[in-house]
Specification:
431 residues; Rossmann fold; two-stranded parallel sheet
Length: 431
């Protein structure tokens, strides 16, 4: 792997004379275990927490340095999220905002505070441009990657030209994020794009939206939902007898518990996903031994078999690999935020590395660079079989060349609107 200098954890600690063993790396997480999005937040947070609990118990942390993983509850509130950021940033090597709204508020602060922002699979899509957004990362895939893959998938099911695609989305920065790319692709490929917003107060009562869907009779409904909105939409789709095989969500709309509410009636529902749970993976056995059996997990067997818990593990693995890469590069156990930025810019998550980590099949391979802060891993179409999600496609890759100009355009607009905005001139064009 390109980021390793063949330094083992032992070598890192030896170079410090063992001093790092008494110290910690502070990794805060702006969590949301309460509020209307708690049902989806809890399994994600549990997976993230358990991965670091496992590393601390099994390996003594990363490079012999314990990880201090702390949550600051936001309830998914942007205002509380900013408060949590300010509260935790002092000793942090990372910030994990956990909301596109919070991400957009914290993003300008990263250049000032020089703390990497890690928004795995969410946030502002132009953050892929590492030259412009030198402190922000959304690996392994962004929302424009998801939109690209969904358009490609539908086109492969008999063509998308002439089709009507309804876009049921949370009326929030998160839900609006992929609209520019969908509009671009609609113009290019000749399909009708119909945005249908769902307000925060309408999430559990979407009768008006589904009345519109019945009236418009779209060929597909794509959903950018979250929390209570997912369950509300899925139950409405079943109630109105919508063809579930034509209902596809983004990765945050593929939560097992939401589909369990309708069981067999939800068969055929799909979501695009950059993660997949693997109960037989080595990491799951290690978590049982070192975390569950030790009474340190807040999860349960049903949750742990689901998509979101497994995704939480993958998220913490990505951060842990960035930390390990930085330790190896700089020969130190207790790294700085700037060193972690280097680590996150030099990830190389190969099939071989996933096997070493005991995470086979749980995330596609991907790599990052100074200029590419997303990685664009691609993903799979998952389908609900009545009791669980199963893979329903081979690995799908986004066509990043299709929106490279859009990324550059929106990144430049952002930098101009927030001038003076420092960029990393040492980066080449996005690759």
């Amino acid at each position: 792997m390109r980021y390793w200098k063949t330094l083992t954890a032992a070598a890192v600690i030896a170079s410090l004379g063992g001093a790092a063993l008494a110290e910690e790396i502070y990794v805060p997480n702006l969590s949301y275990r309460t509020g209307p999005f708690a049902a989806t937040g809890i399994p994600l947070m549990n997976g993230q927490k358990d991965y670091f609990e496992m590393l601390n118990a099994r390996d003594g942390g990363i490079g012999g340095v314990k990880i201090a993983f702390e949550e600051c509850e936001t309830g998914y509130s942007t205002e509380k999220g900013v408060e949590c950021y300010e509260k935790t940033k002092g000793n942090a090597v990372i910030t994990q905002p956990w909301s596109t709204g919070i991400t957009l508020q914290v993003l300008p602060k990263t250049n000032v505070d020089e703390i990497p922002l890690l928004a795995n699979g969410y946030g502002f899509s132009p953050m892929a441009d590492g030259k412009t957004f030198q402190w922000a990362f959304n690996a392994p895939a962004g929302y424009w990657d998801a939109a690209s893959m969904l358009v490609s998938y539908i086109d492969g099911q008999g063509g998308i030209a002439g089709k009507k695609i309804a876009f049921l989305h949370l009326d929030h920065p998160y839900g609006k994020e992929p609209i520019p790319l969908f509009e671009k692709k609609a113009a290019e490929l000749g399909f009708e794009f119909l945005p249908i917003p769902v307000g925060l107060k309408e999430m559990q009562n979407q009768s008006a939206q589904w009345l519109q869907i019945r009236r418009e009779r779209p060929d597909y409904v794509l959903m950018w939902g979250w929390g209570a909105m997912n369950a509300g939409a899925i139950t409405e789709a079943v109630k109105t007898k919508f063809d579930m095989s034509k209902f596809i969500g983004v990765w945050w709309s593929g939560h097992d518990a939401d589909l369990a509410l309708v069981g067999d009636a939800g068969k055929g529902y799909k979501s695009i996903s950059w993660s997949f749970p693997n109960a037989d993976a080595g990491v799951m056995a290690d978590i049982k031994t070192h975390v569950v059996d030790a009474g340190k997990s807040l999860s349960n067997p049903e949750e742990m078999s689901g998509v979101f818990y497994g995704r939480g593990l993958v998220m913490s693995m990505i951060l842990a690999e960035g930390i390990a890469a930085a330790q190896a590069e700089y020969g130190t156990g207790v790294i700085t935020p700037a060193q972690l930025r280097w680590g996150l810019e030099n990830l190389n998550i190969t099939e071989a590395r996933l096997a070493e980590l005991g995470m086979e099949g749980m995330v596609p391979p991907f790599s990052t660079s100074c200029a590419n802060h997303t990685g664009h891993s691609g993903g799979w179409i998952l389908e609900w079989d009545g009791s669980k999600f199963v893979k329903a496609s081979d690995h799908i890759m986004p066509d990043t060349s299709d929106y490279a100009e859009l990324i550059a355009e929106k990144a430049a607009e952002y930098a101009s609107a927030n001038a003076p905005w420092p960029v990393n001139e040492s980066c080449d064009a996005m690759n």
